[in-house]
């Protein structure tokens, strides 16, 4: 600003009255103008000392009129501004006519800081001013508003922009830059701004929304992807409205941009997982269904149509009623459902459901209680599958088993009868051949006769053994073998059995030893005939399969209420893959063709069955070429012999849940 003589307003528009006033009053007029106009004017010298201040200073800062003049401005400003302002004054004072614009904080009389935007101009060379002329205005409120807006943008993750008609790009707020992780000066200002900022697939949508806002004058919203500084995309919700100008035309588009990336991503993730589960449910061959507590179906997957020929829609909102379920199965199914709803038990049950064609389909449902969407009511999730085929097989198996059991019972009865019938004539054959062999009633005449009589007697005895074995086996299988347990001295029992086979062993050239390590009484409660049969079968196998020079040993030991009887030999052994088969009736080692003929494959089967009848077991350990060891473990007292108190109580319920529902 110059003196009146420097800058007299000129031109046709100047009113003649103003010119007259100018001429008349000169400097007084301008002084009055400056002092009443309300603008804050100050003049500083080159050191920043205030040499003039207009009266408006007082209005703006309170009663500071006296305090400013003659003081160094840098002593007055906010301490944080001091250094900057000192430098700026210095810079400005150096260059004649230099202009600067700065915002500076100055204290108000009430203690608050006022923000003042100051335009300073170096007029040190102007003889009338001879200083730096500063024209200032109070921008405290504007600054506060802007600061608040910025804070709001930061906290609420939004930004704003304004696109003035005729300009190539919107003016972006700092909030927009923050959302997009860009520096403010990196936000595009050219006409192709949206190509830089908006995801190519979303261009069309965003621009068409802008057009809508233009044409309809109504606010519009859309969610589109904006590119960020690190070349990723973020979902931004834009709220746009058109702003009318003074001519009632649209002067600008104003937009609010809200960062909704996390929300959209979470929504998309939920949708994707929902779609996945829906696909799983719809494609699964099992039927997935939701029931309310009254068994009304709220959802049922499409697989139901394939199983029952009924559409899922036909079930919706309806309960499963009596006419749909087989009458024999309905009460059971109902009970299970109630147990699930009322007691929260997971239940599984099978039942027949009426197919649309009129036949029943076997189904198996597994149901679990869950809380409804209101968080209080009970709902049931059920998974149901078609088990017709399994049921069909089960029934076939049941029938086959019944047939097999009937056949086995018939066979056992037949064998028992036959064995009995065969024994009577055999006893005659053995008895009379014995009389002949011993020539009890005089010489037979030819020695061949006595040889044949001996053969008849041996064969008869073998046959009797075989028949006895078969009879015992059939009795065991038919559950008719009765044990007569008594207290036995183990050592004496083993002695008597060893004595019976020792002759044969020595004939074969094998040595037989035995040791009994039972402590104390060395007794067992068992059926004597059965126990002897066990020992003899094991011993005769050992003798049969142990060649000359071999060794057979018998051990008896007691521990933990059990007695272990073991027969070891150093014979040919059994191939490992055959061991599991042995112990079943008529099973023999397939490679033993010659020796197999001497036996029937019933010996070990009887040992195992008799041991099990006593509540014990048989185990075989063997190494081909090295020997075999067969162990029979028996309880010292058979289980059936353990006395039980009359009023014994049991905590187990035979059928869990049977009482519920
Ligand atoms: P078998 O009357 O044939 O002896 P077993 O049931 O007693 O019937 O034995 C079945 C088969 O087990 C025998 O044929 C034999 O191959 C094998 N076996 C049994 N005991 C022994 C053993 N101590 N050593 C080798 N092989 C054995």
Give a structural overview:
This protein is of the alpha+beta class and 661 residues long. It folds into five domains: 24-138, Beta-Lactamase; 144-265, PAS domain (Beta-Lactamase), CATH 3.30.450; 297-386, 2-Layer Sandwich (Beta-Lactamase), CATH 3.30.450; 395-476, Helix Hairpins (Orthogonal Bundle); 483-646, 2-Layer Sandwich (Heat Shock Protein 90). The chain is 41% helix and 25% strand. Strand 4 and strand 5 form a beta hairpin. Helix 15 packs across helix 20 (603-613). The protein is elongated. It starts with 15 loop residues before the first helix and ends in a 26-residue tail after the last strand. The model is unreliable at 1-18 and 641-661 (pLDDT under 50). Residues 537, 541-542, 545, 569, 571-574, 582, 588-589, 592, 596, 599-605, 628 line the site of adenosine-5'-diphosphate.
In a nutshell, what does this entry contain?
This protein is of the alpha+beta class. It is 41% helix and 25% strand. The chain is built from 20 helices and 22 strands.
> Roughly how many Å apart are the termini?
100 Å
Could you name the CATH class of the largest domain? Alpha Beta
| Corresponding CATH architecture of the largest domain | 2-Layer Sandwich
Provide the residue-averaged pLDDT. 85
- Main beta-sheet annotation: 5 strands, antiparallel
List unreliable stretches of 5+ residues: 1-18, 641-661
Q: Going across the major beta sheet, what is the strand order?
A: 2-1-5-4-3
Small molecules in complex: adenosine-5'-diphosphate
Total number of helices: 20
The counted number of beta strands is: 22
CATH-defined superfamily of the largest domain: Histidine kinase-like ATPase, C-terminal domain
Structural class: alpha+beta
Radius of gyration: 56 Å
What is the molecular shape?
elongated
CATH topology of the largest domain: Heat Shock Protein 90
Q: Give the number of domains.
A: 5
Approximately how much helix is present in the residues? 40-55%
Strand content: 15-25%
